[in-house]
Design brief:
The complex is a heterotrimer of chains A (352), B (293) and C (255). Chain A is mainly α. Chain A has a domain of 226 residues. Chain A contains 14 helices and three strands. Chain C has two domains: 165 residues, P-loop containing nucleotide triphosphate hydrolases (Rossmann fold), CATH 3.40.50; 80 residues, no CATH class. The chains are: A mainly alpha (352), B mainly alpha (293), C alpha/beta (255). Chains A and B meet through α6, α11 and α13 of A and α4, α9 and α11 of B.
Amino acid sequence: MANIKDKIKNIYKKKNSGVMSYTIVIGLYLVMEILMKTGNLTNLIKSLLVPCVCYIIVAVALNLCVGLSGELSLGHAGFMSIGAFTSVVVSGTLEEVITNDILRLVIAVIAAALVASIIGYLVSIPVLKLEGDYLAIVTLAFGQIIKSIIGNIYLGIDEKGFQFSFIEDTTKISENGKMLISGPTGATGISRISTFTAAVVLCIIALIIVYHLINSKDGRAIMAARDNRIASLSVGINVTRTKTLAFVMSVMLAGAAGAIYGLNYSSISPAKFDFNQSILILVYVVLGGLGNINGTIIAATLLYILPEMLRSLADYRMLIYALILIVIMLVTNNDKLKNRINELLRRKKKHE
Amino acid sequence: MYFITYLISGIGLGSVYALIALGYTMVYGIAKMLNFAHGDIIMIGAYVAFFALSRFNVPAYLAVLLSVVVCIALGITIEKLAYKPLRKAASLSVLITAIGVSYFLENGAQLLWTSSPKMFSSIIKSGALELFDGQLSISYITLLTIATCILIMIALTYFINNTKTGSAMRACSEDKGAASLMGINVNRTISITFAIGSGLAAVAAVLLASTYPSVYPTMGSMPGIKAFTAAVFGGVGSIPGALLGGLLLGVIETLAKGYISTQLSDAIVFAVLIIVLLLKPTGILGKKKSEKV
Amino acid sequence: MSEEILRVEGLGIDFGGLTAVNNLNMTIEKGKIAGLIGPNGAGKTTVFNMLTKVYQPTRGTIYLNGEDITKKTTIEVCKAGIARTFQNIRLFDKLSVIDNVVIGMHNSLEYTTLDGIFKTRKYKKAEKEAYEKAMDLLKIFSLEDDADTPAGSLPYGKQRRLEILRALATNPSLLLLDEPAAGMNPSETKDLMETISKIRDRFDISILLIEHDMKLVMGICEKITVLNYGMVLASGTPEDIQNNPDVIKAYLGGE
């Protein structure tokens, strides 16, 4: 009996509890904080910290959807957008009621996560009936629809309360009031209450949720449904529920990250969260490795910062970025090269 | 009468979508990949035609021909360099590579020709056919677009169904392994498919630039996404599906712009797509594949 | 007369215009091992797919323990107590061997999603018990040393055995095995026969198996049903079947 207990302990040990991911994120946080306190960070890098962490969170969330659940989504930027605009509205409305920035930020993030997950749930009902590329195109379509709809919302608030109009701006906000969302211009005059610390805290929470999910029966069911649908049904797994759970969790985290992202700028426009944005996040996930959370964190960090570091190359930077993407894909999928590397590693091991 | 005007211009726009969608669908059918860079080939085609027409003053038909040749060469080169090495890789890796190619083309174009739009002069004389005492007017370019689309569809259908290369393409889309056992050169067939798709993109580019007369580095991305949607709409992998999807998409978009709202037209197009896919999960003319247990 | 675990009446299915299985009547008694044999394409796997509702039968009724389960879904059939393996192995390749077994216990793990996210005591207790039970199950086929290897990298024979364990983990009253001995050599097949009997005794379940290996079928099945062209050709004890002229004709052909 003791033998079995040891073996189980070993299996538990080998389970991925995410220690590595937490270490990377907290490590990055500490390094950045120290650099900031000692005045060693340029303003450019400082301005990149919050969005970078937000992209890490969305990428981790998307990996839950694409890597663990196996459902390709091309519309996650849409949910980030929902989160961002929800938080801007909530924070803007509560500005005078709740003067504590931290409390207001927490409320805005929770509201954003809630709204994103409700819309995500509604979207998932039709979306998850489809498979593969069809699912991808429908998520793409939803992303576009979300962008179009938000780009046509006019919402303002004054002493008479909320005023709302769609497509054309018919709101008449008095001088004491303000516009929260003004159509294609988006939101302006946002009070920037996001902080690097808040973003990192949300990132840690997101990682805890994802890792705990992976190591529970729901996480196993999500991966089982990905690997083999029919076998999952045959052992009694409700595949639709499982996939819905993964999708809703994923867009909930994307919405929360969008909230931090939105409240980090004084203005945001709905056009920012377009299809290319969704693709960008997908690139982080694929390059980091499907289902590999550590890889996602590293890929998101490096690839977010890369174009900025290439700034000295001015106009050539996006060209080089594109080439790097292609080359990475060609190299990582090259069997000859892989075998060569494995061979070298094996030799090295033998040597030791 | 407005309705008929909208309808006809919708069919014109839809014909362009259909030509682009054909490229997506044929490549998807055979190489099983979404060629994200397809929209950017349109952009290159438009630039080639633009320079040929405005800088070198060549006749219109030569400009079109030149554009087709350049796009075919580009399509084949991209396939050889970027996609062929990934034939056995996961489909997501290929997708990311295609995205990389798309970024590359867009940013390359921006470097070479700047991001400011260039005015494209139509390849045929502007003006419109006036009918019913001027109540119904159809621009010549719309007529040309529709006629070109019909001609190309007929030629392509004949090619696929009646030539040796066409049957090789159909065989490859069914089963590449079996096709190569039958002595079909799969790599060559895939190259030909890319060549045809890119050539059609060039034709679409000229028609598109003649209708909406400006050429800029990201001009291909939205028509690309729409055409991709059209391909899915009609059933990915199906050639008549691409035509049907393209036309429907063009008509819905134009009618939505005319009767509901210009700003919301994209949302309406995509909403219709979602409804269609819910009713028919593999597109209007798509084949349903069932898993053997 | 002993109780019946499974009773199938007039079961049939059409694919388009083609009738794959027609008018199938079959009963399995509690605690028995039954066999379903027949030439290739006779419709054996289709019967399994109908019993587990991967395919919805066109006609007929299926009773499990006296309860009509014809209209149930695959998930409900599993909950009702039928578990199966697949002819073309369907494991969760990227997950570890032990996780494949634990997934079989999905519905008997009584904690919620939130318990999992907050790692409550309930979650910890249920998970611990599940892994212990899974380890116990792995011992049946001596797979405990492979517990943490990905299921997809196991050799073929072990994969077949793991699939049986995953099915057992769902706590079934009827186990359907689709060609459990495929690809095994005679001595492995002999071991498998013994283990199948042991499983029946230990878990007190009934088993229906599809098999081409006649030695295995005749050796452990107490009752055999022979299918040909989607219809029952014969049914009875192994001796009856071996001497049935129709069966001999179907297998050997000609007169």
